[in-house]
Amino acid sequence: MFKFGPRLALDFGSYESRFYLAGKGVVRVEPTLLAVDEDNRVLALGREAEKMLGKTPTDIHLSRPVQRGRITDYNLSQLFLSYFFKLLASVNWFIRPEVLISIPASLTPVEKTALIEATLASGARVVHLVNQPIAAALGLQIPLAEPQGNLILSFGGGVSEISLVSMGNVIAVRQAEWGSSDIDQAIVDHFLKKHKLIIGQKTAEKIKLVLGSPLPLTLAEKEGLKRMSKEDSLFLRGDELFIEVGGRDEFTDLPRRVKISADEITQVISEQMKILLKIIAEIMHNIPPELITDVMDKGIVIIGGGALLRHLSEFLTSQVAIPCYLADDPASVIIRGSGQVVENLDYFNAVLS
Question: How confident is the model at residue 93 (pLDDT cuts 50, 70, 90)?
């Protein structure tokens, strides 16, 4: 506890939210998800709501109050934050936390205002904002004061953003309203188009986690995946790895199973990667000449939950001719950096947005 109440840092993501309590570190990671009934009453939040995915009756709706990095449902955002503020920081009418939120660098003034207002209405006493590229630089232990260019690619669930950071400032940024969840949707679409099979998002995500890669898997990798997998639906045939997937037939509505190869999934994912390549190319055209050497020497650091996609860094390196590296624990880089700021708000005052 602090003299005027607790301090919290928040990474309020489209698919996952991370909470950092000053003095304790990261104390909670929860899906940014609520289950509500027809009267808009909240039945479950976070992981409890996630358990209902694909299993809810028609009168229960699962809602994500943050879409593509921006608040789209003010009331549900407020209810989500209020619940976890009370749970994590013992917030009440007397004890109100000071909250720091990391935000996409491309957020507009109106969107910033909506976020601040929702957080204040959730029980916060004061709200500070920090650009995610700055928080990421701190989480990556990049010295902010040095006049060197650093390219950081954030690959999240609903948004991808690449930023050039130098001397504590965001020099250039490019964003795509596309993330790892869109790969799941592409897999869903592929099954429907090619196999006439309807599958759910959770099934598509599972396929991505088991077989997903933008580069073809080697035979050794396929054999290793089969050997380590607990899935009976995964099997080798010659030098190809297959997974058997169940769904609903598009025409008969009856249950049906199909076998799909790892190479087929690779084709779907590599096609999706064009969006990442596009924003990388766009920012490369906008890097000041004085910083281009830094970028070529240091390469691109990849962060975010989507960065865990198998062979992502190798694929990007092969396409952009600049070394691309996966950060340690990429999903928590931004909250680690935000935690540094919230622990030392006075020191980091200059980087607050």
Answer: low
